[in-house]
Each structure stands twice: as C-alpha cells, then as structure tokens.
Amino acid sequence: MRFIKPILRLFTARLNIKSRNVLMIFGICVCLSNVSLYADAAIFSGLKKSLEEKTRTFRMDNGLRVLMMKREDSPTIAVYTKFLVGSADETPEIAGTAHLLEHMLFKGTKNIGTANYEKEKPYLEQIAVWGKRLDSLRIRELEIKSKGEEPSPELKNQIEVLKRRFSVLLELHHKFVISNEDNYIYSRNGGVGFNAYTSNDVTNYQILLPANRLEIWAKLESDRLKNPILREYYTEREVVLEERRMRVENRGMGILREKYMDAAFPEGHPYRMPVIGYEKNLGFLDLEKTETFFKNYYDPQRMVIAVVGSLDFERTEKILRNYFGDLKKGNPQTLKKVAEAGWSGPKFVSVVHPSTPSKIVGFNKPAFPHPDDAVFSVIDTLLAEGESGRLFKKLVLEEQIAQGVYCWNGDPGDRLSNLFSIYITNNQNADQKKVENLVQEELDRLKTELITSEELFKIKNQILGGYLRALDDNGKLADVLSLYQLLYGDWKELLKGYEELDTVTPEDVRRVARKYFVPENRTIAELNPPAKETKGSGN
C-alpha cells in the first residue's frame, strides 16, 4: 500500500469519456457520504473493469514483459522501460555502478553517437588499456599514502606522464563523438522528456512521443541494448563523482541520510548501498566490470516496457516483438538475502555539517507488499500530510521548532525490508531532544488513543483525493504500471491496495504503532551545524 503516496494515482487516467464521468461521480460520492470508500461496489468494479479492458500484457520468449494501455486523449504515447537493477544489486566495491551505467547508456552505440565507429574503435581500445593502467597506478599511490609513506618519485612521474598522454588520447577520440545524437533524433521527431533515473530497486528510461513514432523509439532503444558503447567512460565517471560531491558531501542531508541507512540496516544489507555510490571508489569504477554489470542485469528477463497512450494493440506488439524479441537472455541474478535477526536495538547517529539542522526518526518494517502497508499509509497521512498532519501541526505550527515534516513509507525501496521514516527540517537553534520527544509523544499517542472513525474516514478520503487529483498524463501511468509489473509480476497488484485501504480500522492503526514504533526497532539520525566559537576562544 506504500504506493498510494506518492506514485499510485492511476484512477485519474481518463480512459474514456464514460469512465471520466464515473470518476467524477465516484469522487463526489466519497466526499459527501460518510460510508465505506467502496460501499458502491459497482463503481469500483466498473473502474477496475475499464482499466483491464484498456490494458494488455504479453511476454516474449526471451522473458521480456510488455504492458500496453490505450488512452485516446491525444495522439501521443509514453514509453517507459524499467530494469530490475539498482544500487541494491551492487557490492561496496562497485557501489554507484548502476547509476553510472544509466549515464553511460546515453553515450550511444556502434551506430549512434559516432562519426565513424570503425575508425573510432582503436581509440576506444587504447583508452580502455591506458585508463585501466592509470587507475592501477593511482590506487598504488593511495595505498602507499594510506600507510603514512611518500610515493616514490618514479611512481609520481609515471602517473603524471600517463595522465598527459591519456588526456591527449581523449581529445583525439573526441573528434569521433557525436554528443546527444539520440536526443536530437527524438527531438526532431517530436519526442520530449527523454530521461532516466536510478533508484535502489530499479533503473528507468523514458520518453514521450507522437504515437506514430513508436518504431523510431524501438529502433533506437533496441540498438542501445544490443550494441552499447560506453564511450567517454572516464570523463563521465568524473561527472558522476562531482555529482556525488554536490548531492552528498556538500549537502548535510545527503551525508545524514547515508549515515542513517548505515545505522538502520545491518552490515551487508543491500539498502546500505547509496544510489550515487561512494566517493572513495567512484573515481576507480572499472570499465570492464561496468560492461559485465550491464550483461548481467540488462537482461530481457529483468525488463518491462510500458506503452501508454494512443496505440493499436496489435501494431504495438508487432513492432516490439520485431525489435526486442531477439534480445539474448542472460544468467539469472538474485538479490542478496540478509538475515534480519540479531540486529535490533535503538540506533543513533549524529552528523556535524554547516547545513540546516535536521532529524530523521525511522522504524524498520517488512518489505512491500505486506498486510500492514495500508495501515502505514494511513499513519503517513495522519502524521505529515499537509498542515492538518499531527506532526506538522505540533512541530511547525504550535511549537514552531521545525520548518517541515515529511514521512516516507518504504524508505529507500520495496524489494527488501525497509523503513518508515520521518524527516524533520528543524529551525535554527531548535532543541534536538525536544524535537525527538515531541515526535515520540505523537507516536505514543497512536498506541494509546484510537483515532476516531471520522478522522480515519477523512484520511482515507485524503489518500483517495490525491489519487483522483493526481496528474493525468501518459507518463505517470507508464511509470507506475511498469513498476508494478516489474516488481510484483502484475500491474493489477496496484488495484488491491485500495481494497486493503478500505479495511483499515482505528484498531489497526493502534496495533501497527504498538508493533513497530518501539525503541528496539528505531533509528535516529540528527544533523547539527558546527558549534560557533565564542569570542576569545582559543586564547
């Protein structure tokens, strides 16, 4: 049920004029009647039937799954391609590889992004050799320094000479590179929103196109998977390293969240891996290992394509089978399982950084899907949804010791056990202990006081209202449909959440609070700016 906030907003899809009117009637009924969300089973059944009629799926012989949803609002389509690979699939030595690979797959193929691949190829081969050699020398230098010793003049000279030669080689190679050629082709054909993202669980690639340009997309993207060239690898590696500095080292919350995950999960848990990777190893990620990572995880068996918009089912299936049906299966890769016993107990970490003081309070919880997840969604909304959220009212409006409060149910992912996290941005000079105590008071209140049926009904309507008001576009639909098809095997799992939501009772909220919001299940992380030196200190 975690998906209700923020991504599950499916019913806002205008499947057709009739279903749009049904949605309007359904929303009015919910707002005006203090009854079950699904008291009119016929309405929900009609919505579900309409979705199912507009959606088809198929699986190719190589394991690739395709989901198609027809929406006739405009002659456009959204195509989202997801792979079951994220930072959770990495080890500490290759942390950041999934994200770097996402960057690299925009660098082209043997056919795209190059002026002449055959002439470019010798340069790529030499870059791979010299890049590996330079990394080896730099690692040796760091190892010597880590022992408190000074690298020899010979080693320093080797590094400097190879750096200069490598720089010249990269410049010579660059004359073959046609940057962003795929983006140019898409733009010329009316494509917008060509982008990608990597999370702990998945990697996603997306584009919005005129409906009659699907085959251009299929040609480009199948070529990307069949003939990828990780050109400009060493240059892009530095770009990602700088991205990490900006997002983590230079931002207190980035550091705090990383420390929070380390404390909340046991040694070896896949959710300890930050998506961006670690500074110490990003600059040494290996080209060959990145290519191997691609072969292992960009497998059609770990892949879902979602096409949403003005489409013909038969034509779409024919095009996709033609271009993607011959993708080769790889060797199955499994996510590392971690024993969850023996790592309970209250955990605390503190970070000093010249940033806004902040606090994270989190509690370990099971992987999604789980029967209690709908209850966590209710608690999420109860505590932090808008100005009516209990924590927002207490910390921001009444006590005025915080600037904002946000809950994340399913932090940082859903494939494994995860966290219910409360993020608080404090006001300057706020008492961290007071913030912590006020948060705990509200959580304890859930354990002792039943929320009223009226309050619960209002919360359910808030969740459903957000669902109905959500952005109505092909992209949002393709994103969430592909996610559910990939992670849970069937996009229809999406619909079950609302039936689960309707069954949540005040007693469920109290039960879940008592079960999970306990000290042995808690992690607290806090960020404080450096203490100001008093006048005359140091004398």
UniProtKB/TrEMBL annotation:
The keyword Hydrolase applies. Pfam families: Peptidase_M16, Peptidase_M16_C. Gene3D superfamilies: Metalloenzyme, LuxS/M16 peptidase-like. Transmembrane segments: none annotated. GO terms for molecular function: metal ion binding; metalloendopeptidase activity. Residues 287-462 form the Peptidase M16 C-terminal domain. InterPro entries: Metalloenz_LuxS/M16 (IPR011249), MPP/UQCRC_Complex (IPR050361), Pept_M16_N (IPR011765), Pept_M16_Zn_BS (IPR001431), Peptidase_M16_C (IPR007863). Keywords: Hydrolase. Residues 67-119 form the Peptidase M16 N-terminal domain. Its EC number is 3.4.24.-. Its cofactor is Zn(2+). GO terms for biological process: proteolysis. It comes from the Bacteria. Belongs to the peptidase M16 family. This is Peptidase M16 inactive domain protein. The lineage of its organism: Bacteria, Pseudomonadati, Spirochaetota, Spirochaetia, Leptospirales.
